[in-house]
């Protein structure tokens, strides 16, 4: 079978362990204590499986649904209904997933079912326990069309996998004779079929393909029951007369062989929703799948360790979910012949099991590890812990998703007081041996035993002072021997135990440390910020050590196959001579560029740099051709020999992503479509980032210049800790996070800060990598800056700056300036236009903008907007003298006075609209009539009211009384939107007049104008009908007054922002030319959340997983989205030509745009700077469903 196209790589072993333990502890206290396990090992993978099944189900029929919701979707609740039975155990000990027909609301509707339990796993198809009317209808159709029924029931392809099952009546149903030839089918109470599964099937990487294949085989059986029930059918089901001649249409597209792993099931009675009895912990079966000849390796059930090396390689690049990204790529690099130190990977499932078991390694893990160590010893020709020639190991983490710097690493594992002497003798380099040993004690104490790094640094500082060493490498061998003793004393002081001398104990505790680090605060913060969910844990990668710190002919480095900041196709990276890998990424020493490597010479080999650089360039080309993407690599040179330690898809800035996509398409490495999908839509924001004003920058003098680690321009007051940056930014201050070097503990502060400035570290340091990934401005390695973190001040250029001082940093040049420097908008490259051209080629959705001024309109048009989806007229009233006329209108006591004030506003509005129409050059402009409540336009303090009184002649007391009268307890649900036009129709008349006059004026000047009038906050069709009539009358009058006889089409529609309007959209659509979904208000009214106050509790809701994300940032597809879908369906049912769009800020959110594409909207509208994001996201939405 071909490798699965699905991203879902099988259910985890942890799911079965959870069900087994639940069967023995079926009570609420145990479940509550293990809720995290349930989420991680049961619900999250089940929802991922449901998501992966969406496309296969659509291929069978568009009417079967896969709904990946925690509640109310395809995943059945784990809670049992205990009200009416004797069994009061509260939880089901099986997982049930049902893909229902869209007409069904419960389990008693046609569909497909997946049942996962310890003793029995199976698939179901058909209808379980249909209601009486449905059962009656099915029986009638069986009686009328027996041959059709039998063909579906007895089809060869169907019966190879499926067997009819379920309960039957003992006697014939009423009205049917016992001798009826179809009596056994007529007696059925359930019309279901089942197919057996086992645990291996469910844990297989191609489980989605297997199950989809089985469901396809049951297509005729299941869809015939749908048809007999009188529900919509898939397009392939034809009338009986057509089916007789084209039977092959149903079965011809099905596979010729049974799917791997499925056995011929014996007919049996099964109740799909029953809670099955659970035996003691099962022995999971390992099965040889003789039908499967996949190109990639299939993970073995229960296997915990995967080896890679010259002797054998058990994993590959497709197994990232199981063995992590690092482990998968190490195996893949080994397979394609790159020089990779041999090693093995412990699976992510072991991490999940460890954390679930409260910190206990899975049973049998260390036995498998021991066997892998023996294989590694044979390949290396060394012994682990040997006193003569010891094999040393590195222990690194590696989750399925790259998380740079988030997990802990331990090097030189296996050294002890005896083997360090053996290493010195074997290498002939005593200094190297003790340098490796001191590093191990430090890392092991920090990572495994949580002894703070600073305690070791203090001991090292004393040794350096004693020997007059400025740098680590200057410390002599004698000093390193003393340092090892000092480190062991630090270790014992803070742990109350000696440093472990048993290498296997070191390894076991190191594995545990990596597992623990998965749940560390820094790792959790990074996953939260990056939105990484659904992972079981981290894998552990154990490799034989290669040493970059063996002298001047050794080194280590980190590189990207292309520049991650600019995208230039130039090998880009840094290396350190006589150093270990962590020295580069930790930013403790400033490294040299890889481009300088050919100049590297040593006494033993004058051409070492040229040879290593040439080999790296060959590997760079090979990796890009293999992975077809930019690679982030780590390497070590040991005595002139190059080793590859890691490769992964490189994180890059938005600018780099665009350039790389364009150039890889030109190089024919990838297609245009792949190029579109390679650029994260949200990252385009980085291309639109401001830079410093060149004129101001020319006049300024840089305090210092560091490394341009992440582009952009930022300024702010100085914050010296992550906690301080978070707190001050939350209080509204703009801050720069200033650190010597950042670490994973700083991620929250880095995320909150406007920019990051470090005094050490290079272009691949932690600060640089994380900042680039977030599009955050960063200057690293500004070595002239002296940072006093405790005193909260810095010294540079002879001056001191503190927490109240502002600095500006340029992440594109590395420059640092005093004070706040003005910024300018960016200029976009030709590559940007190319990617946008591709996006426009493949997208289906139109993209408009939200703009209410000619300047914004032009800017949006330059960004590719195809019109204005929301022009807010209220913003126009606040400029200059307009607000006075607006307030006069509000204070007016009668219609005549209001009209007099509105006449003053009319010219302003007309001029604004004419400017916007001119800027948009014939593109549609949707003008929303006045929406906010009137109290927003009046002054609320006594001083301002007196000033208004002086300007209008209205007594201040009357103004205060009117302001009080306008006050509402809940103005967002009060007198606003269309309600203003109902009570004050003259407002609508003035605005429609201005729109129409502006359009006519443009036409006379030969400027094409396409205005659309949008009536806001409609809740009933009568509101819209009344106001539409008034608008049409006004347009007619204006055209007559202006003697305009030419064509002037002005569409009139409404915003759907009240749930009632969505629910009655079939009525509203009779009076609307278009719907525009105002999802800001629709979200507010659906949830009952005030947009202005939601931040008081929303973080807690997201933190406690009540909500997955902020519904005002990304559309709530299961709630608000359902209203949108309902409105689309109902609106189109009565008005086929109705235009459909969205104009809330959701229109610029990539996830929301995906939803808009799926529900069939015509366009999205967003702020000008988000237009490019929307264009790209719309193309990605279209391609994802292609």
UniProtKB/TrEMBL annotation:
Residues 829-1181 form the PEP-utilising enzyme C-terminal domain. It comes from the Eukaryota. GO terms for molecular function: ATP binding; kinase activity; metal ion binding; pyruvate, phosphate dikinase activity. Residues 733-813 form the PEP-utilising enzyme mobile domain. InterPro entries: ATP_grasp_subdomain_1, CHP02453, PEP-util_enz_mobile_dom, PEP_util_AS, PEP_util_C, PEP_util_CS, Phosphohistidine_dom_sf, PPDK_AMP/ATP-bd. Its cofactor is Mg(2+). Residues 321-357, 360-594, 608-668 form the Pyruvate phosphate dikinase AMP/ATP-binding domain. PROSITE patterns: PEP_ENZYMES_2 (PS00742), PEP_ENZYMES_PHOS_SITE (PS00370). Keywords: ATP-binding, Kinase, Magnesium, Metal-binding, Nucleotide-binding, Pyruvate, Transferase. Its EC number is 2.7.9.1. Belongs to the PEP-utilizing enzyme family. This is pyruvate, phosphate dikinase. It comes from Cladocopium goreaui.
